Automatic annotation (TrEMBL):
Pathway: Purine metabolism; 7-cyano-7-deazaguanine biosynthesis
Top-level EC class as recorded in UniProt: ligase
PANTHER family to which the protein is assigned, alphabetical: 7-CYANO-7-DEAZAGUANINE SYNTHASE (PTHR42914:SF1)
The name this protein goes by in its record: 7-cyano-7-deazaguanine synthase
PROSITE patterns with a match to the protein in the record: GATASE_TYPE_2 (PS51278)
EC number(s) recorded for this UniProt protein: 6.3.4.20
Keywords of the record: ATP-binding, Ligase, Metal-binding, Nucleotide-binding, Zinc
Reported cofactor(s): Zn(2+)
Pfam families: GATase_7, QueC
Cofactor binding: number and manner: Binds 1 zinc ion per subunit.
Role of this protein: Catalyzes the ATP-dependent conversion of 7-carboxy-7-deazaguanine (CDG) to 7-cyano-7-deazaguanine (preQ(0)).
Amino acid sequence: MCSIGGVLIFGDLDDERARAIEDKLKSIAVAASERGRDSFGLVALDRGGRFRAYKDRRSASEALRDMPRMITADTVAAIFNDRAEPTTEHVAEKSQEDIQPMVGERIAVTHNGTIANDGELERKYGLRRRSRIDTAILPPLLETLWDGTLEDLARILRDVVVGSYALAILDSSRPGKLWLAANFKPLYYMWDKELNALFFASSDDYLQSDVAPWEGNYVKRLEPYTAVEIDVDRTWRTVSLWRKSGGRRVLVVASGGLDSTTAATALLRQGYEVALLHFNYRHVAEGPEDRAVREISKALGVPLIEIDMDFFKLAGGSPLLGQGEINRVDAGREGAEFAHEWVPARNFVFIALAVALAEAWGYDYVALGINMEEAGAYPDNEMEFVRLLNKALPYATGPQRRVQILMPVGGLVKHEIVKLGLEVKAPLHLTWSCYDKGPKHCGRCGPCYMRRWAFKINGVRDPVEYDLPPEVEEEFWRGTRPYS
């Protein structure tokens, strides 16, 4: 419930650079006070292993006006905290010990989040803390349990501490080292090339305002569920804080079409435990899609979960929802290249629901049939969309189970998907791709156009029937081999 920040300083430090670093640190702390105004504290560590602390009951913008020089030529690192006091930890009369960063015998910690089992840790390990604030348990805990390695720090955070955190650690016995760790709390770092220093804070906005690319510094987010050890000798080590499940259970969002069926079959052949998840969202092709996905489930021998929903009626405006024309004559190619049938945020909604179910039911992955071909028209089929969602998922799911999104055909175009489907023996003959309700594929909408050509490019006749004149079909498929 705070904003944290600090700096690790590299190389020899003269007075001019020390002042510049302190000014930079102050500006970061003031910007960061939007996340905490109940107190401010800063702890500096010098090269000889001595801590100096400044703590104030006021917000950073007020407290910093009276702070003495904290960054001097002997300083190697500093950490600060802008505290937002939770209702559960209200302290009417704060002492210095109640203000972060918390300092023990040799460990100093600044922490954003909640340590939910602080009382249990205190009793179990016989710890004595200097404040009832939950963060105060961390210095004595680390001084008691931590062997000093990054791997052991990860073990403690993953298996001993219960709660949320982004934190920074200094150890007076090892000046020149800084440890950062975060689960789902945000933490960013910035390399300032001019000041030869690494700054960190709870938001990239606090580190650097908008500047031209050639004028700015390198800013990056610490990946969720990661711990890092940084040394002034310029070594950088990271370790994952995820609990390794080793699971290969995957929930495939399945429409009954080529892409999701090929994706599901490919995953099944790779040894994943597959289940299909199908949404009936009151769209035009709901009937044939539903029949197709049920037959595909039987053919693959995998479970099928169906969800009926009418949420998209509120959005409306799409031919897929029965509002407008789908089968425009000779519009197939145009329909393949332009999103005539766009349903607002459809894949985004499906993914959100699928991830929630995956977390609740113990699946490790959600898989989609998104692909490069349809990404030319539909933004929610773009690989970048899924890549960014995977980066956001640690902030949307609980810490006990990691759910990731897979896109087995994400980098393929339609004829490559058909090729893969044939290779893995996906039941392509059971699939339904048309935007219309049948009983045959219309042969004129965008998906039909792409499907027909994808099979033809592979030299195989599509096993499904199209509502097109026999002479047209005979001419189109001439020279192809039968599907088998």
